[in-house]
Design brief:
With 360 residues, the protein is an all-alpha fold. Helix 7 runs parallel beside helix 10. It is elongated and about 130 Å long.
């Protein structure tokens, strides 16, 4: 570059009336710079876009494990939110049923003690995790009423729950978390459950629930099963399934002394209330040899609850008390003697008043 060109550039940069010199390459780079898109997690526009091409819905149904994991990772954070609706994302609820159904039909048969002793394959572990995460999203989303209605009316919900209860084993560590989420999801469709004498055993949810409360050592699962039994049997259509020798009754009586565990005791009491509300069961309970012990437990529970709920208030019911002092000091007015009176009369005012005040 010549000296004249450099001086011209220096003048153009120092002038106050013209813009600074910009090289052509820099000018092209400035024109290409645009505001960067907000790519933070859960803020991309396509996450909650109400179109069939929604990115989460397509990734979930793609079958590509990395894409499925990406979608479930975000759905687990979005599901516990009132703004998250199944109806706003077409096809999402169908994709969430794919992996739980795979686990019930194929995955649970592949989980053996040998696999968990020597670590299962990485691919199987990922698929099992996707099944649990999908069920977790369904369960958390069902806490919001519009999503609960969507699940209750979906054709896959009830078959998934009934098949899982009849297939999975509650006492296996590999299935316990899945069974617990299934029981929580059961409350969505509990109002539609009708159990008749002709209902096959594999479609009767009462049998797995009774087995869980009588055999399981998982506290959360026992509470959920007792709650499911109470909700199902409180339906007048299902009262014919209340029997005298139900193992759930013995289990509820067994857990009653655990006063410190309020949640478990409440679930047992709610189930016993539903059981004894039936006239025939109330008469059978009065004849039960365990009835006196149960009455004593209930009375003890009432007394224990009263101690914690009772508010002690001290109210003074006595009136105003007037007392007489033991010693009294009497003050009498001073009476002037004749000598004091004669002395005051001879004095002028105001000296007379001062002396009179001093004498009294």
């Amino acid at each position: 570059m010549s000296t004249s060109q450099m001086s011209t550039m220096q003048l153009s940069q120092n002038t106050y009336y013209r813009s600074a010199y910009v090289a052509p390459q820099q000018q092209q780079q400035q024109q290409q710079v645009r505001p960067a898109a907000d790519v933070r997690d859960d803020y991309e526009r396509w996450y909650t876009e109400s179109v069939p091409s929604n990115r989460m819905s397509l990734s979930l149904r793609s079958g590509v494990l990395s894409e499925v994991g990406w979608a479930l990772d975000r759905l687990c954070r979005l599901c516990f939110n009132e703004k998250f609706l199944f109806s706003s994302i077409p096809g999402l609820i169908d994709g969430l049923f794919d992996w739980p159904e795979w686990f019930i039909t194929e995955g649970c048969n592949s989980t053996t003690d040998e696999n968990f002793l020597f670590s299962p394959s990485h691919e199987f572990s990922r698929k099992r995790r996707y099944a649990l995460e999908s069920l977790f999203v369904l369960r958390n989303s069902a806490l919001y009423e519009p999503n609960a209605m969507e699940l209750a009316n979906h054709s896959h919900t009830l078959p998934l729950i009934l098949k899982a209860l009849s297939t999975l084993q509650h006492d296996r560590d590999e299935d316990s978390e899945f069974v617990l989420n299934i029981i929580d999801l059961y409350h969505v469709v509990s109002a539609k459950i009708i159990i008749l004498p002709t209902t096959p055993a594999r479609w009767n949810p009462l049998l797995p629930f009774q087995k869980i409360v009588s055999e399981s050592s998982n506290r959360s699962m026992i509470i959920a099963a007792f709650t499911a039994l109470a909700v199902t049997l409180s339906n007048p259509v299902n009262t014919s399934n209340i029997v005298v020798d139900s193992p759930a009754v013995s289990a509820a009586i067994k857990y009653l002394p655990l006063f410190a565990d309020k949640a478990l005791v409440d679930a047992c009491l709610n189930f016993l209330y539903v059981h004894i509300s039936h006239m025939r069961m109330a008469k059978a309970f009065l004849l039960c040899p365990e009835m006196p012990a149960v009455i004593k437990l209930l009375v003890t529970l009432l007394l224990d609850e009263q101690d914690s709920l009772e508010e002690k208030i001290v109210h003074d019911i006595s009136g105003t008390v007037h007392t007489v002092p033991s010693t009294t000091v009497l003050q009498r007015d001073h009476v002037l003697t004749k000598e004091e009176l004669d002395g005051l009369l001879a004095k002028p005012e105001p000296q007379r008043c001062y002396d009179w005040w001093a004498l009294s």
